[in-house]
Amino acid sequence: MDWRQLMTTLDAVLREGFDAYKRLVDDTEPILTALDERSGDGDFGANLKGGLESAADRAGASDGLRTWNALSEVFLDDVGGTSGPLFGLLFQEIREAAASADSLEALLRDGAGAGLAAVQRVGEAQPGDRTLVDALEPGVTALRDHEDLALAVAAAVDGAISTRDLIARRGRASYVGGRAVGFPDPGAVGIALLFVALGRASGLDIQPALDRLIRASDGSGSGIPEESPTTPEPTAESELNFVLDAATDARHPLAALSLEERAQVLETVADALETHSEELVQIAVEETHLTAGRLTGELGRTSFQLRLFAEVVRDGGFLDVRIDPADPSWPVAARPDLRRSNRPIGPVLVFAASNFPFAFSVLGGDTASALAAGNPVVVKAHPGHLHLSRRVTSIAADAIRRAGGPDGTIALIEGHDNGVAALEDPRVKAAAFTGSIAGGRALFNIAQNRPEPIPFYGELGSNNPVFVTPDADADAPEQIATDFIASFTLGAGQFCTKPGTLFVPTGSAVAKALHQQQLPGAAPLLNDNIHAGFQKRLTELRNAPNVRTFRAEGDPEANPPAPILLHAHGKDVLNDPELYLDECFGPAALIVEYDSHEQMLELARAFPGQLTATVFGLEDAPADLLDVLAERAGRLLWRQWPTGVSVTAAQQHGGPYPASTTSQTTSVGTAAIFRFLRPVAWQGFPQNLLPAELADK
Amino acid sequence: MDWRQLMTTLDAVLREGFDAYKRLVDDTEPILTALDERSGDGDFGANLKGGLESAADRAGASDGLRTWNALSEVFLDDVGGTSGPLFGLLFQEIREAAASADSLEALLRDGAGAGLAAVQRVGEAQPGDRTLVDALEPGVTALRDHEDLALAVAAAVDGAISTRDLIARRGRASYVGGRAVGFPDPGAVGIALLFVALGRASGLDIQPALDRLIRASDGSGSGIPEESPTTPEPTAESELNFVLDAATDARHPLAALSLEERAQVLETVADALETHSEELVQIAVEETHLTAGRLTGELGRTSFQLRLFAEVVRDGGFLDVRIDPADPSWPVAARPDLRRSNRPIGPVLVFAASNFPFAFSVLGGDTASALAAGNPVVVKAHPGHLHLSRRVTSIAADAIRRAGGPDGTIALIEGHDNGVAALEDPRVKAAAFTGSIAGGRALFNIAQNRPEPIPFYGELGSNNPVFVTPDADADAPEQIATDFIASFTLGAGQFCTKPGTLFVPTGSAVAKALHQQQLPGAAPLLNDNIHAGFQKRLTELRNAPNVRTFRAEGDPEANPPAPILLHAHGKDVLNDPELYLDECFGPAALIVEYDSHEQMLELARAFPGQLTATVFGLEDAPADLLDVLAERAGRLLWRQWPTGVSVTAAQQHGGPYPASTTSQTTSVGTAAIFRFLRPVAWQGFPQNLLPAELADK
């Protein structure tokens, strides 16, 4: 194509792009107006529509360049509102770039790039401020990095949608604070529509991106409901495909970062999390029933964990470097030069949990350890805190980009079906999950039944039994009783390490002390699902033979439920262990009196795999009990309480099934990184072809 | 019970035991006679039956003691054959012990113990010599160690059955050498029947043990067939149950051994393997088509591997000890004293492979690493070398016992259904397998679909591609051609690391060199199953579009098959990669010409997970090819050949599916031990209650 042909083509696309934009804005004007009513004075839709009509009138049937001349003049001079002149600046720069461009992508890259600079100069808005910059900037970046209009359309649309979870700091919307959260910024949507129109004019299939934008903008499924979790917006098939392709593409560049660079990515993400702490905690408070204090602490744990993994990465020990020099005298046969280290396993799918919206969600331990191992991560959002998840993902993606990590290193997908589709997808090479036994087992089965089965690290259910020996029972009954109540009601009993059953000897002093102590008041559970699950299991437990209510301050069946202590005898429990000993997630616990050491051992043997098992004894310790428990639990505690899982090198959070689906790994602590590595041995390679860690020093 | 009552009871049991023994021998006399016809002069059954009849006549209706007086007199004085007087000595000692015994178990322990000593003094037989000692000794040992008659009955029966796989060195049977292998020794069966009879008289349910003994003795399913694998004898349900209970019971005592003791168990087993080398290789030669030289080398590899794991155990690094002292200033929350190490996972089920009757069978890498990790092992025998498997198990069990390891540390089960039943059994906590994709995947699915899923380490299929770059192709074509032929025909192509496809550039000099070289002659495959599988896959490959025979010295479809080289073009392979690139187990390989670097990369990307991938290049190495291969293979080789898998610390034998079901582990090399460990953390424990490795030094 010579220069003249090219110009003719570009000109035609500009004209068709204008026409397409005008039609799109005509169609979506009510949506744009509604959005602006939430965050501004409601005139954005009418202004944009009116401006385009004036420009169309002024341009008549003229060519592309003349049409865009008219367009920029109308918006710079006549269109009102904050955004009219900003749009005008953008149109003007695109018009000017058309003179020297050698492709449509170059035209838009230079024109929209200059427009972005002009808009930012005038409006002083940064990405993340919830303005049109949030759509324009990603679109321009995609064009600069990839010269690909399709990617730019997707990026602008994603950027516009991402404003849904931003609290405005710039522009009109800043005055309404958090009220607009849940709805995208209308200016950003207007920009995204422009990219869509230009994409359509140049022959791209923009329908999936447009559908996504409209769905996110028209208010269906948006806004933060008062009582129930946000309905997740199913990620469209094409979007899931885009996310998984991006993760796959990120695999090599991410693995190619030095350990120091990888550590810095983690630290930059940790910094960003803390920079946005106030905003994020505010969103989390709105979405969950948790307090700002608790959430602030949890955010601190989350950023600490990212930094701890940065240290693990720098240390390099996780690579498990093994070097066997060639040895012709090695027994049986000569030994070749053989060097082995751990490599990233590939894109990891993380299913977020509800009960820790920071520490076991988008940037929780699973994501931190998968990133530390050098893998791209796709997070399936938990519907209990969707807006928080979106915002955290956006902050993390931005931080990763700034630290030099490749795009596609982190992404969020929403909706159960998308989670399953991603788990079945051959591009995903490992998955992690924290949640219920039923849900986790179903996903585990999917992962194992793929044509290529993949590791599925599910952390499921646990009762976390506590055994009090007769001498310990007599020794400090008040203390044990007080601390037990504090532990089983912590976080309204919504911890995976909540002690669910307390075993005490017949006639126990601890039991007597428990009877005299005050239980804390009712506290709301995280969401309706968890409340319903708690009620169902509690009813089952209360109806078990010879179970009686031992202590309850209020109504455990109300919402929020009052904590409750139940009581049973060892012999009844042994008749049907599952009925008594399955997990009850919420503020309830069972006291079981055993009538002999042998019965206590039998009760311990009745447990399937557990996350924790606790013993209160004195010096004369029951070694046989410890033997039984060490076969069943990942963590044993001596005279301490299982709630509170410190993030350390020696932590073990995971036990035989059903505590977890892979008892040989942990989901908390630095050893969690080993879940996402795979060893590769290099035989006979020259130094220059070996991975850095395997070359001679 | 006072002394008088006790004596009355013992006396009654002796009488009833005699009667029961007489009935049993009446019933089984034809079986005993048939057994003796194989290994002696065929009179054992008649002699035993006649002796018991004489004793019954002489004793009349008298009490127990008098009956056993008569019994010992008749056998010492009147019964002929080698074994008559030996049985007489035993009866006499039991009769004498009755005077001072305070329980039936003590009576038999002392009586049979003294009898054993007398028999050994006279006959000079040791355990393993294929005499009645092989049943008597385990029975006496069980009584000494456990004072449990039921265990003694089982041990005597097991001992008698184990003689089936012994080559006689003592007694009459020694003259017939290996002819009797496959049938138990009649004298040992006669002793086992005595234990059964005494068990029945004391009220035990001996029927399962008796059924087992009869089935193993009556010739059905015994003997070594000439051409097809031995039909495995399904282990009866009660026997499987016994084996799994014994493994479970061995769990604690085995884990309680010190690392030094555990290392000595492995070394004692290695010693025993070498002590019996000649005998074992002889059995293996009879059962497989492999040469004594190859089998002797493989046995050496197997004992070396056991010793290497003993060193790993002594070193203790595999425990991955992590100690976090309490730290009140630890970020987010105070850190408790937390100490973590790896513990044995529990009883391991090992499915033996056919192609390495020593190194990947009863005492192969899976068993060695599982034992090193401190776990009892149950081996599912491969039907291709059943007698060898039985004999190796018996030698290993004996060595473990001598080294102080608990009974139940190793056991053999036979038959597909028993393998599946064991895999489904909750007492089994991990499984390892080496074999075909179809078989391995079926077992993997069973392991994952258990109520409690367990780790299943399957090493399945691999094509092991070799890529030759254009410059390497030009550099040393003759050498590459010669070595490729040697590698793909090694062991008649029956190695899991056989290079199945050689990628060379269009117009390759290596291909020309291959065309001029001689292929080795036909060699028999391991068994009919493997031969049939090879023919099926070879036909499929030869019928693939545009595949032509490149070189064949004889008839690859004959039995034994001649090696064959096929040829295809890259573009055809890319049309249907599975058809061309699936594994072909046997002496065949495919040469593929690629027409560009990009096509070579595409061909590399077409592979699923592989055990190995090999590159022949010069200095200017194709880094992009290595990147692609490192994502797909467990071991990369540079200018070396993949056959021959050295047992070292840095070895990695396992890759993404279908090379293995768990790409994060290896089945060869010392890192294989990590498959059978599970971490446990101990929080806040006093020093005296911690496992040795976690206590302060």
Could you characterize what this model shows?
The structure is a homodimer. The first copy, chain A, has about 700 residues and is of the alpha/beta class. Chain A has three domains: about 5-225, Serine Threonine Protein Phosphatase 5, Tetratricopeptide repeat, CATH 1.25.40; about 255-460 and about 675-695, Aldehyde Dehydrogenase, Chain A, domain 1 (3-Layer(aba) Sandwich); about 465-655, 3-Layer(aba) Sandwich (Aldehyde Dehydrogenase, Chain A, domain 2), CATH 3.40.309. The first copy, chain A, is about 50% helix and about 10% strand. Chain A has 25 helices and 15 strands. The first copy, chain A, has helices at about 5-40, 45-60, 65-75, 85-95, 105-125, 135-145, 150-160, 185-200, 205-215, 235-255, 260-275, 275-285, 290-315, 365-370, 385-400, 415-425, 435-450, 470-475, 475-490, 510-515, 530-540, 570-575, 575-580, 595-605, 625-630; strands at about 320-325, 340-345, 350, 375-380, 410-415, 430-435, 455-460, 465-470, 500-505, 550, 565-570, 590-595, 610-615, 635-640, 675-685. In chain A, the strands form three sheets. Chain A has a seven-stranded mixed β-sheet with strand order 10-11-12-9-8-13-14, with helices on both faces. In chain A, strands 5-4-3-6-7 form a five-stranded parallel β-sheet, sandwiched between helices. The longest helix of chain A is centred in the first third of the chain and has 37 residues, at about 5-40. Chain A is globular. Residues about 170-180 and about 220-230 of chain A have low confidence and may be disordered. Chains A and B meet through α13, β1, β2, α17 and α25 of A and α13, β1, β2, α17 and α25 of B.
